[in-house]
Specification:
mainly alpha, elongated
Length: 74
């Protein structure tokens, strides 16, 4: 996930690269690569009101820059 600053397409690419980096780290710690996937959401799932053209503090924007892990039983 990214904050809303920057172009939508750039943020989507950035978040995908961050997700892939997190996956590579998890794989390096011994998790089988077939058990994990990466999905970048860019600025599509903000946690607060800080969308495009909304004035927010750096701290508010920081809340939207995150990595989430979802554990799914199969």
């Amino acid at each position: 996930h990214t904050d809303s600053r920057g172009k939508d397409a750039y943020n989507l690419t950035l978040s995908q690269k961050r997700a892939e980096s997190a996956v590579q780290y998890i794989i390096s710690r011994g998790v089988n690569k077939n058990r994990i996937t990466a999905k970048g959401y860019g600025e599509t799932q903000l946690l607060n009101k800080c969308a495009n053209n909304v004035s927010c503090s750096d701290a508010e924007h920081q809340l939207n820059r995150r990595t989430e892990f979802k554990i799914v039983k199969q």
